[in-house]
Amino acid sequence: MHLTLEFAGGAELLFGKQKKHSIDLPENSTPWTIRTLLVWIRENLLRERPELFIQGDSVRPGILVLINDTDWELFDGLNYQLKTNDNILFVSTLHGG
Amino acid sequence: MPWRTTSRLGTFCGVFRRQALDRGAMKLAVNKIATGHNADDIAETILMNILRGDIARLKRCTSIITGDESDENEASTIPRCKPLKYAYEKEIVLYAFYKRLDYFSTECLYSPNAYRGNIRTYIKDLERLRPSSIIDIIHSGEQLIVKQTAKMPVQRVCERCSYCSSMPICKACLLIEGLNKGVPKLGIGKTERYRKEMQKQDQCCSDQSLCHCMKEKLTVKEKD
């Protein structure tokens, strides 16, 4: 399944400073959700300091998730089932000191 | 444990930056300073002041304008305002993203371990359970009234540098003295003893003292 992942607001620093990632998820017996995508991201894409991106089975509080430019809370959040060519944007709001 | 050594570093940074901002503004003869504090910041500050028992700051921190001369408890510094007081950080970040505004987004390395860092995590977790938490905390903070009989610090002027201060010697001077005298915790935590000693006599740069500048002079002499 082909997806576009975008990282902004400082989150890109954890992914080799690359803001846009074009990825292909392998076929799976159960449908891909944001929850399983996060596991995949941590194992395949996250370069450093996973605790700054992921907390438990979700994103660290303060990181916004947008699915096709819409707040994930308007969908099913972690349980949203990914569709091919979806655009998932992760924006960090954690700045300063 | 990292917590003990890095949890008070925000004090140095915040105190010096704020004074630098004030002093710079005075030189430019500015009549108001606008800061970018947003709703998340204000909510954090309210909780921080409650947890620290800082009633003076708690009273001031929800005002959208501070340092106004009309309040006789405020020393006459340049008034400050927070135009984004009710704007969520989330709104600001998404605005900047969609308008493609370039901004400095690096999180300070010490901030997750700082006192405010713990509160920030707590508020973010609260927000997850109840999205209106942040604005609710601000609303509650605004409703707080301090008893007339509560002991409040009196605004006066620092004996060393004449900056406004609630203590005889302002926080910035205290921090610098601590660094010069090799007592870096001065101004951070309970150092009543040291503070009293400092106020007795200015011992810096006398022959018997071991302050930083004196140490350097000794080293130079040895090399000759």
Q: What is the compact description of this entry?
A:
The complex is a heterodimer of chains A (97) and B (224). Chain A is mainly beta and 97 residues long.
β-strand number of chain B: 5
CATH superfamily of the largest domain in chain B: HUPs
Instruction: Provide the spatial order of strands within the biggest beta sheet of chain A.
Output: 2-1-7-5-6
Question: Largest interface, per-chain counts?
Answer: A-B, 14 and 25 residues
Order of helix and strand elements from N to C terminus of chain B: HHEHHEEHHHEEHHH
Shape of chain A: globular
Strand content of chain B: under 5%
β content of chain A, as a range?
25-35%
The first-to-last residue Cα distance of chain B is: 43 Å
What is the end-to-end distance of chain A?
39 Å
- Quickly give the CATH architecture of chain A: Roll
Helix content of chain A: 10-25%
Order of helices and strands of chain A: EEHEEEEE
Largest sheet of chain A: 5 strands, mixed
* Unreliable runs of chain A: none
Q: What features would you describe in this structure?
A:
The complex is a heterodimer of chains A (97) and B (224). Chain A has one helix spanning 34-44; strands spanning 2-8, 20-24, 54-55, 58-59, 63-67, 70-71, 87-92. With 97 residues, chain A is mainly beta. In chain B, the strands form 2 sheets. Chain B has a 3-stranded mixed β-sheet with strand order 1-3-2, with no helix packed on it. Chain B is globular and about 50 Å long. Mean pLDDT of chain B is 78; it is low at 201-209 and 213-224. Chains A and B meet through loops of A and helix 2, helix 5 and helix 6 of B.
Annotation keywords:
heterodimer; A: 97 residues; mainly beta; Ubiquitin-like (UB roll); 5-stranded mixed β-sheet; 1 helix; 7 strands; B: 224 residues; mainly alpha; Rossmann fold; 2 domains; 10 helices; 5 strands; 4% strand
